[in-house]
């Protein structure tokens, strides 16, 4: 290799030297390697090494490692490239593909997914219930298990007994939870309480459960039930008859 000697580098702090070595043999004969030496004699072979050593003391963004000079045009190109990169990241790439994706479920034939829209005049199938119906938690009544009321003396109040015709349905259901669920339905909903009308709910409650009704089998309130509940005062309270029939049978009689 032929060494041209070390020369001062005015673009770097005082004491820094630049050396260019020309290769004489091999496939790269005639090409040169550039090295920089610090005032203490430490050798640097690349611009990243130089930048790590100098840190924030010298801005090397426009420094050309081969010539040893500051190139303002190079700084402008770097700024423009960074600006374009940031704009491209914020803008994003538009997805011009309007075809419906293929279903991921196992099938012999490839079927596109069903697109649902809320616009009634659109040819695509609309499902207005997707907006009106809010999701409900299954078996939320189980959160009422273990809760009981107490009086002012902190004595637990004995819960009332449910009629024999009112039977619970679903996993791990008991009379106390059912009573709390029925009371909650009476206070939070104005709809009639009919119980679970579907017979399939006993086979698979997680699928066929009607979340707007308490976890009990379908029942009908009879005159005998009203008499047993109201006792001797049933004749003097005609409004009770209508109320019981409304909540138990779905409509007043």
Write a brief caption for the model.
This protein is about 30% helix and about 10% strand. The protein is of the alpha+beta class and about 250 residues long. The mean pLDDT is about 75.
What does this structure look like?
The structure is a single chain. By secondary structure, the chain is of the alpha+beta class. Among the domains are: 84 residues, 2-Layer Sandwich (Methyl-cpg-binding Protein 2, Chain A), CATH 3.30.890.10; 80 residues, no CATH class. It has 7 helices and 6 strands. It is elongated. The mean pLDDT is 75. It comes from Chelydra serpentina. It is found in: Chromosome; Nucleus. GO terms for molecular function: methyl-CpG binding. This is Methyl-CpG binding domain protein 2.
| Major sheet strand order | 1-2-3-4
Please tell me the CATH architecture of one domain by its name: 2-Layer Sandwich
Uncertain runs: none
Distance between the termini: 111 Å
* Average pLDDT number: 75
Keywords:
single chain, 253 residues, alpha+beta, Methyl-cpg-binding Protein 2, Chain A, 4-stranded antiparallel β-sheet, two-stranded antiparallel ribbon, 7 helices, elongated, transcription regulation, DNA-binding
Map the helices and strands.
Elements: E1 2-8, E2 17-22, E3 32-37, E4 43-44, H1 47-54, E5 63-64, E6 69-70, H2 72-91, H3 129-132, H4 175-188, H5 205-208, H6 223-230, H7 238-249
Antiparallel strand pairs: 1-2, 2-3, 3-4, 5-6
């Amino acid at each position: 290799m032929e060494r041209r000697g070390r020369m001062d580098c005015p673009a770097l702090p005082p004491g820094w030297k630049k050396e260019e070595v020309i290769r004489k043999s091999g496939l790269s004969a005639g090409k040169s390697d550039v090295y920089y030496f610090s005032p203490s004699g430490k050798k640097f072979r690349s611009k990243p090494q130089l930048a790590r050593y100098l840190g924030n003391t010298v801005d090397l963004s426009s420094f050309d490692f081969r010539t040893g000079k500051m190139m303002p045009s190079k700084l402008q190109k770097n700024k423009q490239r960074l600006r374009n990169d940031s704009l491209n990241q914020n803008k994003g790439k538009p997805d011009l593909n309007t075809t419906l994706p293929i279903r991921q479920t196992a099938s012999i034939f490839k079927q596109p997914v069903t697109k649902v829209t809320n616009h009634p005049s659109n040819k695509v199938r609309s499902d207005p219930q997707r907006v009106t119906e809010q999701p409900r938690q299954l078996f939320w009544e189980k959160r009422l298990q273990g809760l009981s009321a107490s009086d002012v003396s902190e004595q637990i109040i004995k819960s009332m007994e449910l009629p024999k015709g009112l039977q619970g349905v679903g996993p791990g259901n008991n009379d106390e939870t059912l009573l709390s669920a029925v009371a909650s339905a009476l206070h939070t909903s104005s709809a009639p309480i009919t119980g679970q009308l579907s017979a399939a709910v006993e086979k698979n409650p997680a699928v066929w459960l009607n979340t707007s009704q308490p976890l009990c089998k379908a029942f009908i309130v009879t005159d005998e039930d009203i008499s047993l509940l109201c006792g001797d005062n049933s004749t003097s309270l005609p409004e009770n008859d209508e109320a019981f029939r409304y909540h138990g049978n779905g409509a007043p009689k």
